[in-house]
Design a protein that fits this description.
Layout (H helix, E strand, L loop, with lengths): L1 H17 L3 H12 L4 H7 L6 H40 L18 H15 L3 E2 L8 E3 H4 L18 E2 L6 E3 L5 H9 L4 E10 L11 E11 L4 H16 L5 E8 L2 E10 L16 E10 L1 H6 L8 E8 H9 L12 H4 L3
Helix pairs in contact: 1-2, 1-4, 2-4, 5-10
Bound molecules: 3,4-dihydroxyphenylalanine.
The site of 3,4-dihydroxyphenylalanine (DAH) has 11 residues, from strand 9 and strand 10.
Length: 344
Amino acid sequence: MKAQLENIYSLAAADIEKANCINDLDEIRAKYLSRKGEFNEIKKNLKNLSDEDKRIIGSLANEITKKLETSLQEKHDKFYKEELNQKLQKERLDITLPGKYIPRGKVHPLTSTTNEIVSILQSLGFSVVESKDSPEVETEYFNFDMLNIPQDHPARDVQDTFFTTVAKNVVLRSQTSGAQIHVMENQKPPIRVISPGRVYRNENINARKNNFFHQIEGLYIDKNITFGDLKGVLNEFIRIYFGSSRPTRFRSSFFPFTEPSAEVDVQCIMCGGKGCKTCSGTGWLEVLGAGMVDPNVLRGVGIDPEIYSGFAFGMGVERFAMLKYAIDDIRLFFNDDVRFLKQF
Ligand code: DAH
């Protein structure tokens, strides 16, 4: 029996030696070591042996089984490693391959300019009005009447204003100033608001004019507000937007809803005041309309001009963006050319 065992062992060891893969090893294990394998067949005959032989043959069988298990396991580990390495080689990811290009969206320069102006004014204490106080489809009441713009004022001219067929007196707003009236009708002073939005004018389109554009309106009403406050706030605003070394100047002007009124210029950012094409040789660029709110306007919305005073201002977003980025044609903002938009 001992010889039988040793014979089977050497056959099994030779088989293991010849094995080429994990599969071969599994077959060898089944052939020799499974319940129906050759060793078990021999072990079945142990019962016919003397106690002494049982012990000797039994321990020899165990020893041989253990040896085979060990060499099967070693070989298995070796094959497993090899197969894994082969797989990793074959299935390697090439992380240097370029990815799928997804173009990235950008914020439109008018949006970023609006955001910048709004956040400067917010830092100076103004808050943005609710959209219900700033409709683009407006009545003449808000766009003109309450702003002290009489029926026969040239600003109402059909050549400037887009009238609608929705109803009589309904227009596309020609300025954001109507938001002042909405706010003052809904809110008691102190009032400190800004209102950005789109306005419409029936213009011939060219490099400097489009039939819609964007404005930001401002309004500050409280007790004891003076022209000094107006100058202080607007100078500070311009200083932050255009840079502290850029001089400003206030010119006397006229708007129906402010008295006195002013236009605010900054020193030309192209020529530094020497005079060039952009500033028509004057050295100055107009950037704001402003003034002390006319007592007539305050009375119209039920605010007593003997107690309260205030100032208003308005500016064009396109103009601010064109000056900051040296853009010479307003139409570029609106024709969706990504070559233009990508630059911002
Ligand atoms: N609404 C004026 C325009 O469209 C701009 C303006 C001027 C607004 C003076 C104001 C202001 O609030 O006080 O030309």
